[in-house]
TrEMBL record, chain A:
<feature type="domain" description="RecA family profile 1">
    <location>
        <begin position="20"/>
        <end position="227"/>
    </location>
</feature>
<protein>
    <recommendedName>
        <fullName>RecA family profile 1 domain-containing protein</fullName>
    </recommendedName>
</protein>
<dbReference type="InterPro" id="IPR020588">
    <property type="entry name" value="RecA_ATP-bd"/>
</dbReference>
<dbReference type="InterPro" id="IPR030547">
    <property type="entry name" value="XRCC2"/>
</dbReference>
<dbReference type="InterPro" id="IPR027417">
    <property type="entry name" value="P-loop_NTPase"/>
</dbReference>
From TrEMBL, chain B:
<dbReference type="Pfam" id="PF08423">
    <property type="entry name" value="Rad51"/>
</dbReference>
<keyword id="KW-0227">DNA damage</keyword>
<keyword id="KW-0067">ATP-binding</keyword>
<dbReference type="InterPro" id="IPR051988">
    <property type="entry name" value="HRR_RAD51_Paralog"/>
</dbReference>
<protein>
    <recommendedName>
        <fullName>RecA family profile 1 domain-containing protein</fullName>
    </recommendedName>
</protein>
<keyword id="KW-0233">DNA recombination</keyword>
<keyword id="KW-0238">DNA-binding</keyword>
<feature type="domain" description="RecA family profile 1">
    <location>
        <begin position="85"/>
        <end position="264"/>
    </location>
</feature>
<dbReference type="InterPro" id="IPR013632">
    <property type="entry name" value="Rad51_C"/>
</dbReference>
Length: 323, 321
């Protein structure tokens, strides 16, 4: 090796500072409320785990609204990211009127006059793309054809930067029970569940290479366990049940190929001290905890008509409760 | 599981050469193709001598998939569909209508949970009679012989339009009763059969078009599913989830409101919890809890899950017998 070559090799290509600057320019990090504790960037895969009901879909809707709103419109600063969103509904339960309601509230509160700007509303609604799947094969079909569909949307000037999957574990039981016979001379017997998950992860990875997106998926806890989860639901109004402050342990049921694909994980659970909901109006309280990266302090989030917000006033009161 | 061989007739690009290329990757059917890594396949086709024709075959398969799937819809189209087709269906049952802001929504699966004799069957019968009075058809799957035509006649006769004691007035009552089709279903496979038959009938529009099916009631779905849950295999849960998807697809495609009832089982600490377990919780759109105060006609109804209403929102109503 020449002398200049060795020296150049030792000096390196770029300093860490230069590299950070280069990456931040290409993929800037976003703070997406109510998940703003941890900065996210396009290419991250976030998993939101929680029992049912726990506002998981509402968080997805909130994030979607933040993405479709423009940064500024008619002099009003909305602070959105100005991109399109794709929602894959695997649970087949999405309610568009809830999305519309939250979007209208958001537009109205930003507007000085207090009315809803119809052009802005239409623009945002058009940026929200939706597809629904009722089994794993439909899901795979949708992922495989997403390349050319996104390309078509891109040609119309619409770029999708957020992929929302409602309930990645929706077909878990059906796939586990599927006996997929294939005339393969394969010694290694692969479970159908495993094959499907690998195919899904591969397809999403390839999709992310060409269309960098932030992926957020919800996952319901389907193996019921602790005392707190079951009794909380029915005894909401009669609070003679004292809940011991222990964490909900949930069993991971997704195959390891998906688990290692996930870069961030959040756990949602219903809150300890629920006020009497009948008097409090249409509010619900939940606890949001970051498992990956691990932040010991859970946030309290409140679900109102207008959206999902982090309840800042009770944040410090919960300081003693960290695990 | 469509083998690739069968597609050769309609799509000439999927010829025997392409099929043998796929067979070398252990792809024999359409589903195998879906599970295989697409880019690896394309890369392997590149290395082949006749890469162009192979890639054309792959593109052909992809366009077949693309043609079968519905196109991506945007928010405005969804909202328009919801406003035109997915209408609210008043049930006539005070508690439900009060809590849901008008009634059941077409296209959604609503679940009523409650202990025994908390009013679930009454709610079903009241909803059936109200919808039938308004002119829609009702399909009622009765799993426990609890359907009562006399009760329906009473409920219908409670309004002034249908006075039953006069022989001449039986006509309108009879018409209302004819719109409620009641089937006795005693196991889940029978329910699947009937739902598939319903799907076929609705698709081919055999049913008369002036009485659209607006409401499907299954009282109670838990008695069909509970016998097959349990055991260590996943088959029971898989059937339950598939039933859920079938009902939701029927509801969405044909603008039907589906109402199912569920019973309660013992939970931890002496409390009761809804039956069918954790996996069932993510199936219905809306879950309502009914309870009756001891020895009285006053009932409580509260939301367990609703997309817009907070859980625990409650309403009281008095049940008339």
């Amino acid at each position: 090796m020449e002398k200049g070559g060795v020296k150049a090799w030792i000096d390196g290509d770029e300093t860490a500072h230069d590299m950070l600057r280069r990456i931040s320019a290409v993929r800037s990090s976003l703070l997406v409320p109510p998940l703003h504790r941890v900065p996210l960037r396009l290419g991250n895969v976030v998993e939101i785990v929680g029992p049912s009901p726990s506002a998981k879909t509402l968080i997805l809707i909130q994030v979607a609204i933040n993405f479709v709103l423009p940064r500024e419109w008619n002099g009003v600063r909305y602070g959105g990211f100005d991109h399109s969103v794709l929602f894959l509904d695997l649970d087949c339960r999405f309610d568009i009127s809830r999305f519309s309601q939250m979007l209208t509230h958001r537009i109205m509160e930003g507007n000085a006059v207090g009315d809803c700007d119809k052009t802005l509303y239409d623009l945002c609604m058009q940026r929200f793309l939706y597809a629904r799947c009722s089994n794993s094969f439909e899901f795979l079909q949708t992922l495989k054809t997403l390349h050319c569909r996104l390309k078509r949307e891109k040609d119309h000037g619409v770029s999708v930067h957020l992929l929302l999957i409602d309930s990645i574990g929706a077909f878990h039981w059906v796939d586990r029970a599927s006996v997929f016979l294939s005339p393969k001379e394969n010694n290694r017997k692969k479970l159908f569940l495993q094959s499907v998950s690998e195919a899904v992860v591969q397809d999403i990875k390839k999709l992310l290479q060409e269309y960098p997106m932030l992926v957020i998926a919800t996952k319901s806890i389907i193996f019921g366990n602790t005392y707190s989860m079951a009794s909380n639901e029915v005894n909401r109004c009669s609070r003679n049940v004292t809940r011991s402050p222990q964490q909900i342990q949930y069993r991971e049921y997704m195959p390891s190929v998906w688990q290692s694909f996930v870069t961030h994980r959040i756990l949602l659970r219903s809150s300890d001290d629920q006020p009497a909901t009948s008097n409090y109006g249409n509010f619900s309280f939940y606890e949001l905890e970051w498992l990956l990266p691990r932040i010991g302090l859970p946030d309290k989030i409140v679900v109102k008509d207008t959206g999902v917000f982090v309840d800042s006033r009770t944040m410090f009161a919960e300081g003693a409760n960290c695990g | 599981m469509a083998p690739l061989k069968c597609m050769e007739k309609d799509y000439p690009l999927i010829d025997s050469h392409f099929q043998s290329f796929c067979a070398s990757h252990a792809i024999f059917s359409f589903e195998d193709f879906l599970l295989y890594d697409l880019h690896a396949l394309i890369a392997s086709a590149d290395n082949h001598s006749s890469s162009n024709t192979l890639k054309q075959g792959i593109d052909q398969l992809l366009s077949v998939i693309d043609a079968k799937l519905p196109s991506l819809r945007n928010g405005l189209q969804l909202l328009q569909d919801a406003e035109c087709n997915k209408l609210l269906l008043p049930t006539g049952f005070q508690g439900i209508d009060a809590l849901l802001g008008g009634g059941l929504r077409a296209g959604q699966l609503t679940e009523l949970v409650g202990l025994s004799s908390s009013g679930k069957t009454q709610a079903c019968l009241t909803s059936a009679s109200t919808v039938a009075k308004q002119g829609g058809s009702v399909i009622y799957f009765d799993t426990g012989n609890s359907f009562s035509p006399q009760r329906i006649a009473d409920l219908v006769g409670q309004t002034s339009d249908y006075v039953v004691d006069n022989q001449a007035e039986l006509g309108p009552l009879q018409r209302v009763m004819e719109r409620i089709m009641c089937y006795s279903v005693f196991d889940i496979y029978q329910m699947f059969d009937m739902l598939q038959q319903l799907k076929i009938n609705l698709k081919s529009k055999i049913v008369e078009s002036d009485h659209h099916v607006q409401l499907l009631i299954i009282d109670s779905i838990s008695s069909l599913i509970t016998p097959i849950l349990g055991g260590r295999g996943p088959q029971g849960h898989a059937l339950m989830i598939s039933a859920g998807y079938l009902l939701k697809k029927l509801a969405d495609d044909h603008n039907i409101a589906v109402m199912v009832t569920n019973h309660m089982v013992a939970g931890e600490g002496g409390t009761s919890k809804p039956a069918l377990g954790e996996s069932w919780k993510s199936v219905p759109h809306i879950r309502l809890l009914l309870s009756r105060e001891y020895d009285s006609n006053v009932c409580n109804i509260s939301t367990l899950k609703h997309p817009s209403v907070a859980s625990g929102r409650a309403a009281k109503y008095t049940m008339y017998l």
